[in-house]
C-alpha cells in the first residue's frame, strides 16, 4: 500500500525474513538450510538493483515518491535503465528463468504453511510490482523491452512444464507448475490490452487459491504418510475418497478446466495477447497441454491404481478442519469461475487506465 519507492523496498525486503525462518526452522529435511539460503540470495541479488534504482531516482530527481515520479517526463535512457533495474528485482520474485532455481527448493523444504504463503502471496509481489511501477512510470520502456521479456517468459513456460513432467515429488510438480502459470501472467501484463491486464490480475487471485489449495492437500498427504513421492501413492479414491475428490477438483482447476477460476484468467490473457503476439499465445498453449500431462499423470498415480500396502499400512481421510478449509476454497474457486463479473467489474476501470498509459 505504500506509495514511496524506499518504503516499498523496505517492506519488499522484510517479506524475506519470515519465509526464511519458516523454512529454516520448520522445514522437513536437511536440505532446508540450502533452500533458505537460496531464497535469500536470489531475492537479495535482485534487490541490489532496486536499491541502486532508488538511489539514482533520489540523486537525479530529488524524490522517491510514486505520485511525484509519475508527473516527470523521463529521458529514454533513464527510463530504460530504471525499468531494467526494477524488473530484475521483480523477475527474481515471479520467478523467471534464470532466477527460478530457489522456488522448487523452497517449496519442497518448506512446511505446508510456508508453501501456501509462497504460492498465494510472495510470488505475486513480482507481478504486482510490475503493475504498480513499471506500467505506470515507464510505459515506453515496457513496450521497448516486452519482446525480450516475452522470449524469457516463453522459455520459462516451456522449460518448467517439461521439467514438471519428470518430477515424482508432488510439491515439485506444483512448484514448477506455479512458475509456468506466473510466467503466463507476465506475458499478459506487457501488452496494452484491457482484457489481458484484467486477466493477469484475475489469474493472480485465482492462482493464489488453486496453488494454495494444492499445497494444503499435499501437506495433508505428508502429515499422514510422511512421504510426497508418487512411487508410494495409489488407490486413494478407495481409501480416502474425500481427500482424493478435493485433489481431483483442484487438479482440474490447475489445468484451467472450464468452470474454474483459472480458465477465466488464462482465457482472458490469451484473448488479449493474441491481437498483439499470436506466436506467444501458440507457444504458451504448450503449457496447457504439458500442464494437463503432468497434472493428470500425478492425479492418476495418487487417486487410482493399486494400493501400495507394502509402503502405507494405515489410511486416513480428511478431518473436520481440513474439510471446512477445502470446501471454502472450492466455493471461492467455483464462484470466481462461474460468476467472474463480480471481480472483473472492479478490475475494469483499473485495467482501462493501465492499458491507456501504454
Give structural notes:
The chain is an all-alpha fold. It has one domain (5-357). It contains 16 helices and no strands. Helix 9 (170-188) runs parallel beside helix 13 (261-274), helix 10 runs antiparallel to helix 12 and helix 10 crosses helix 16 (341-357). The mean pLDDT is 87.
In short:
This protein has 358 residues and is mostly helical.
* Helix proportion: over 70%
Alpha-beta content class: mainly alpha
Which band does the percent of strand residues land in?
under 5%
Q: How many helical stretches?
A: 16
SS elements, strand count: 0
Gap from first CA to last CA? 23 Å
Uncertain spans: none
Average pLDDT number: 87
Series of secondary-structure elements, N-terminal to C-terminal: HHHHHHHHHHHHHHHH
Largest beta-sheet characterization: none
Number of domains: 1
Shape: globular
Rounded to an integer in angstroms, the radius of gyration calculated over CA atoms is 21 Å
What key phrases describe this protein's structure?
single chain, 358 residues, mainly alpha, 16 helices, 0% strand, globular
List the helices and strands and how they pair.
Layout: H1 5-14, H2 16-26, H3 32-61, H4 66-71, H5 76-93, H6 102-109, H7 112-137, H8 139-165, H9 170-188, H10 194-225, H11 236-239, H12 241-254, H13 261-274, H14 278-303, H15 320-338, H16 341-357
Helix pairs in contact: 1-3, 2-3, 3-5, 3-6, 5-7, 5-8, 6-9, 7-9, 7-10, 8-9, 8-14, 9-10, 9-13, 9-14, 10-12, 10-13, 10-15, 10-16, 12-14, 12-15, 13-15
